[in-house]
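for the writeup, i need someone to sanity check this before i put it in the appendix. the sequnce is what the collaborator sent (i think, or maybe the updated version? ugh). structure was predicted straight from it, no edits. if anything looks off just tell me and ill rerun, i have time this weekend
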Amino acid sequence: MMRKIFTLVFITLLLACAYIAWLVFGPTVKAPEGKFFYIHTGASYQQVKEDLLKNKIIRNGFIFDQLSKKAGYPQNTRPGKYEIKNRSSLYNLVKMLRSGRQTPVRLVINKLRTKEDLAQKIANHFEVDSLDAIRFLLSNDSLKRFGLDTNTAMTAIIPNTYLLKWNSSFEKLFQRLDEEQEKFWTPERRARAKAEGLSPREVYTMASIIEEETNNAADKAKIASVYLNRMRKGMRLEADPTVKYALRNFALKRILRGHLDVASAYNTYRNSGLPPGPICTPSANTIDAVLHAPETNYLFFVASPSFDGSSNFAETYAEHLIYARAYQKALDSLILSRK
């Protein structure tokens, strides 16, 4: 009789151990919707556990507690974005959270026009709040250490794909972007900028105008030559995209005479030289187009009446008027045909 009881107890203990082992090492973890689990800066161990249970990532808080205590996790919770693999083990989950092995955010930056655009994009992908981001971008004191001010802040941004930690402060994110910008400006690029009589910031600003002027890669360097020639002759750039930026109306299709009177340092119809900062984040190719601008005598350009995205370039105002009238006539005809 005792032997049967002993055997029964042994089997029960064996099953209990097997069950506990399954809870620890078995496929008990369930991936949340979107597969990522976020731990906010300052979150306590208790908050992390409650969120794991609330999102049904783990089933057993007691076992999680025991494993976490063994691993020393309650005293070492780390914020971040963690990828939870479906049917992984509780052991591996605790190990990952304890090590702080988070998944980096893949930040893709293309064309951004304003500091507010950058702040919102960062807030959409990272823990940082958009108000903290814009507060940083509008503070000369914050930007001073990067050699920037509120006008030139966006020159730190080279459109590209970046891998960054979700819980990074905006200052750390900006520092990383600025470091990549410094790498972009190789000695060769800096030498080309100097040869054109421009600083890297000024090249970036000119490229930003060209980025807004055209999507036609073949014309970008020629447009750069127009602006460089006009600056050398003391002529105003009279670039339509700077008026749109000054008005903060990027949907404008046609710039009218009334628009040209907007009082802004960015309005190149009223002010000589380049605006005090960029009007968007230009691509690396557009920046390089400025650095490789050909030697021309062009002083004017206007969109082609073929509407193929190309431009017609002119050395004299008389020649430019011919091209401009042809474009205007084609545009009027197109508008009438759509009514």
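The beta strands are 36-39, 80-83, 105-108, 161-164, 300-303, 311-314. The chain has a mean pLDDT of 93.
thx in advance!!
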